[in-house]
Write a structure and sequence with these properties.
6 helices, 5-stranded mixed sheet, alpha+beta, binds zinc ion, two-stranded antiparallel sheet
């Protein structure tokens, strides 16, 4: 389409540019958004009301609503399958970084925080075991195609993998099962102390 006549317009000619008045949304920082009012309002503000539930109050524009998050987490917990706790598997206090390794941990938490064990939302954790290391994979870039490791090195990896297979979990992650714990985690007298505390004594 090179043969269409492109007329020459001089930079200083009247038709090159004209002063016009334009109307549009300008945010608090002076950025022009044309007719996009909502983007201008978003860019020019820091907070907004929760759009799911007006009672949740306000949240920062670049964050989520804490109340909505807690409601979702609670729904997720309530929907979990429930199993009696075996007393040894790590437990997680749902939605937090708090973990309990045994009944003593649970008891301490309850007495320190003035809360009954049955009020805790506890989730059974799943173990994260160390993965075995394949020496050929590990040195893949340095080995010739289809090449094996030197025997001594392979034996060392075999020994290491034996230790890895025998290892305890490296860590625990909250699973999808809620833990039901037995009532006798607290002694009768510990319960009485809690009761006294909740009665404001
Ligand atoms: Zn909300």
């Amino acid at each position: 389409m090179n043969n269409t006549t492109t007329s020459v317009v001089m930079m200083d000619s009247p038709e090159a540019a004209t002063i016009q008045t334009v109307t549009g949304w300008v945010d608090r920082h002076g950025h022009f958004w044309g007719d996009d009012e909502s983007m201008a309002r978003f860019a020019g503000s820091t907070h907004q009301h929760c759009d799911k539930n007006p009672e949740h109050g306000i949240r920062a524009n670049n964050s989520y609503c804490d109340a909505c998050f807690e409601e979702r987490e609670l729904t997720r917990f309530m929907a979990m399958e429930r199993q009696p706790w075996d007393g040894v598997t790590m437990l997680n206090l749902h939605g937090t970084d708090t973990y309990f390794g045994d009944a003593d941990d649970l008891r301490d938490y309850c007495t320190e925080n003035g809360i009954y064990p049955e009020q805790l939302k506890l989730v059974v954790c799943t173990p994260n075991y160390p993965r075995e290391i394949d020496g050929c994979d590990y040195y893949y870039d340095d080995l010739p195609d289809g090449g094996d490791l030197p025997l001594a090195l392979q034996e060392a990896f075999d020994n290491l993998n034996e230790a890895i297979r025998a290892s305890e979990p490296l860590s625990w992650s909250p699973g999808n099962i809620a833990a039901v714990i037995s009532d006798d985690i607290l002694t009768q007298s510990e319960r009485q102390v809690l009761e006294a505390r909740s009665n404001g004594e």
